[in-house]
Amino acid sequence: MNITILKGNLARDPELRVVGSGDRQTSVVNFTVATSREFTKANGTQDKITSFIPCEAWDSGAEAIAATFKKGDLVMIEGSLRNDSWEKDGVKHSTLKIRVNNFGKIQKTKKTERQGSDETSEKVAF
Predict the structure, then answer these.
(1) Which of 19, 72, 106, 113 has the most neighbouring CB atoms within 10 Å?
(2) Residue 38 to residues 28, 51, 55, Cα–Cα distance (Å)
(3) In the CATH scheme, what is the code of domain 4-124?
(4) Sign of the CA dihedral with 24 first, then 27, 30, and 35 last
(5) pTM for the predicted model, two decimal places
(6) How close are the terminal C-alpha atoms of the chain, in Å?
(7) Is the pLDDT of residue 122 over 80?
(8) Considering just the CA atoms, what is the radius of gyration of the chain in Å?
């Protein structure tokens, strides 16, 4: 089983392009999700590490992401981990990325005063 779920912020605006030719054209969008992990060091201080995860989506999903996501948006991504490899100038390269299956933008909403708190809650359209 190969399932990856990410929650984070878009590090930059999605980049949409069309690949293929003639009747065999399809849309692909590439974007990066920044995810953070907080932890306590051995000396008791708090620290945070941010990872930047490359993602790609195809077809109608690509077009929807390009139309609705922008830099800084808080998003939830579900997909599969993929290894891309290529050779350039005789040097082999590879990278891991998430091939997106489902996605949603997380909207922060304020709780009402009747609920007794001014904290924010998160709502995702997944």
Answers:
(1) 106
(2) 32, 12, 22
(3) 2.40.50.140
(4) negative
(5) 0.79
(6) 21
(7) no
(8) 18
Give the C-alpha separation, 7 to 15, whole Å: 19
Q: Which of 69, 87, 4 is nearest to 31 (CA)?
A: 69
Rounded distance between C-alpha atoms, residue 53 and residue 7, angstroms: 11
Residue type, 34: A
pLDDT bucket at 120, cuts 50 / 70 / 90: very low
Q: What is the mean pLDDT of residues 44-60?
A: 96
Sorted by sequence, the CB contacts under 8 Å of residue 63 that are 6+ apart come out as 16, 27, 29
DSSP state of 111: P
Q: What is the pLDDT of residue 126?
A: 54
* 44 Rama sector, left if φ>0, alpha if ψ -120 to 50, beta otherwise: left
Residues facing 9 on adjacent strands: 34, 74
Q: Which amino acid is at 38?
A: E
Distance CA(72)–CA(55), nearest Å, equals 15
Residue 1: pLDDT above 80? yes
